[in-house]
From TrEMBL:
Signal peptide: none annotated. PANTHER family: 2-METHYLCITRATE DEHYDRATASE (PTHR16943:SF8), 2-METHYLCITRATE DEHYDRATASE-RELATED (PTHR16943). The keyword Lyase applies. Residues 290-475 form the MmgE/PrpD C-terminal domain. This is 2-methylcitrate dehydratase. Pfam families: MmgE_PrpD_C (PF19305), MmgE_PrpD_N (PF03972). It comes from Microbacterium telephonicum. The lineage of its organism: Bacteria, Bacillati, Actinomycetota, Actinomycetes, Micrococcales. It catalyses: (2S,3S)-2-methylcitrate = 2-methyl-cis-aconitate + H2O.
Length: 506
């Protein structure tokens, strides 16, 4: 049975035993040798395939190429065999922290992988690159990798359930550093004290502001989770060498909660699995059918429906109001007060976080494409710009309540659309969850993950490489250490050479 752990700020003169600190409780979950349930194993396989799919689609993009070049400019560290880098041949390896960095950027670049939203929001698949990199480096087998990934997902999702970061403009990767460190601890079979020190260090080094997701969104949006994964690998290395971390990192009077989150009067309740309880958090997360911010998924599906059966021409629209949750309105909607969200010259990263743009394009096109929907030509089309400027969002208390609901049957990420046509006709429709959501019209299953992988990989991987990777991934819990080291995607000849090749300090 899940245990709810109260977490608050302690004054320095108050005694908070190390074993009662949240970092230590996270570590206790990590070292629990409980078996991984079969349905969890199945979902971990799905997400490994999903991560590789979105990484393949981003191999030639500039941020990914730069991160890959940085990683490959570093040799393998002396403590292991090294780790592979997405796109590069399997015999081209680098130090695990740099592989975590390069692969993490590739996975996040298109914002196209899995998501979990609660008190905070997250992409728990960001745990996969650092944990996989360490597994390859130390020669872990598939079963150990599965256990590590189950922990990474569990800890991140549990933290996201309980502790809001964005309210205080702290980036959500502050939950990723601790979860990846915990997952690596499980993978390596470390003791509880070592994992606790790694969790504390990983948190301390991965707290940053949300400016990377505000205004004109930069390429650091893709780099932020990769940096957190890299920091987690390094934190584990230091902890294994006996180095300690700030303590208590969450609860201290000068700690993260007191000065970055809800302050000295904060009180949280963090749910963690009890001893012997299976880690099933991954099953509460969901992936993306469309390459866009998760809150846009359901809206794309609704726009697709209205395009195909709405009975009106988008050119006849006078105004569109999307009534939705607080988060959608203020983060990707007009409530953000970001002029860039209505700017046809905005970056892809910014358009990805503009629901007015996304709904306009999806309504006109009847779908969404991870490349074509973001091109400057598409964003600058005159009829699209005209429709785009007519779309606003509004917070609706009921959709906000459903967004934050603990009941999975009513938790929702969509809203209600009101479309007013030039002749005064009003069209009203709504959607609660994306079609691909577990409660949606077409929930994603293994065949959908494989189809997504094939779609995104075919332009950059040889057919034989696609089949090789899928065959390995589907056997994940049975893989030998040698096979884990081949859990990589190798680009077609010439693909990486066509990508930008920047030089830097290294």
């Amino acid at each position: 049975m899940t245990v709810i752990h109260p977490v608050r700020v302690y004054r320095s003169e108050e005694d908070l035993p190390r074993t009662e600190q949240l970092a230590h409780k996270i570590a206790q979950v990590a070292v629990d040798p409980v078996a991984v349930d079969a349905d969890v194993v199945d979902m971990i396989v799905n997400r490994v395939i999903d991560n590789a799919a979105v990484a393949a689609a981003s191999l030639t993009r500039a941020p990914v190429s730069a991160a890959r070049a940085q990683a490959l400019d570093h040799p393998v560290s002396r403590g292991g065999a090294g780790a592979t880098v997405f796109g590069a041949p399997n015999d081209t390896v680098t130090s695990p922290e740099w592989a975590a960095w390069a692969n993490g950027v590739a996975v996040r670049e298109l914002d196209y992988h899995d998501t979990f939203l609660a008190a905070e929001y997250s992409h728990p698949g960001d745990n996969i690159p650092p944990i996989l990199a360490v597994a390859q480096h130390v020669g872990a087998d598939g079963a150990a990798l599965v256990r590590g990934l189950a922990t990474g997902y569990e800890i991140q999702i549990d933290l996201v359930r309980a502790i809001c970061l964005h309210k205080h403009k702290i980036d959500h990767v502050a939950h990723l550093g601790p979860s990846a460190a915990a997952g690596i601890g499980t993978l390596l079979g470390l003791d509880v004290d070592t994992v606790a020190q790694a969790v504390g260090q990983a948190l301390h080094t991965t707290t940053a502001t949300r400016q990377s997701r505000k205004g004109e969104i930069s390429t650091w949006k893709a780099h932020a989770p990769a940096f957190a994964g890299k920091m987690a690998v390094e934190a584990v290395d230091r902890a294994m060498r006996g180095e300690t971390s700030p303590s208590p990192i969450y609860e201290g009077e000068d700690g993260v909660i007191a000065w970055m989150l809800d302050g000295k009067d904060a009180a949280y309740e963090v749910p963690l699995p009890a001893a012997g309880e299976a880690k099933r958090g991954i099953l509460d997360s969901y992936t993306k059918e469309h390459s866009a911010e998760y809150q846009a998924q359901a809206w794309i599906d609704l726009a697709r429906k209205l395009h195909n059966g709405g009975g009106f021409d988008p050119a006849d629209v006078a105004s569109i109001v999307l009534h939705t949750s607080h988060h959608t309105h203020y983060v990707i909607g007009s409530g953000a007060n970001d002029p860039q969200k209505y700017d046809p010259t905005a970056s892809r990263e910014t358009l990805d976080h503009s629901i007015p743009y996304i709904f306009a394009v999806a309504l006109q096109d009847g779908g969404w494409h991870h490349v074509d929907s973001y091109t400057p030509e598409r964003a600058g089309r005159a009829d699209t710009v005209a429709l785009w400027q007519k779309i606003t969002t509004a917070e609706d208390a009921e959709w906000t309540r459903r967004y934050h609901s603990d009941d999975p049957d009513e938790k929702a990420f969509g809203g209600r659309v009101e479309i007013t046509l030039a002749d005064g006709t009003t069209i009203v429709d709504e959607i609660a969850v994306a079609d691909a959501h577990p409660l949606g019209a077409r929930p994603f299953a293994r065949a959908d993950y494989i189809r997504k992988f094939r779609l995104l990989a075919e332009p950059v991987l040889e057919p034989a490489e696609i089949e090789r990777f899928l065959a390995l991934a589907e056997r994940l819990p049975e893989l030998t250490p040698a096979e884990v080291r081949e859990l990589n995607i190798v680009a077609k000849p010439g693909v990486l050479a066509s990508a930008p090749s920047p030089r830097g300090l290294f």
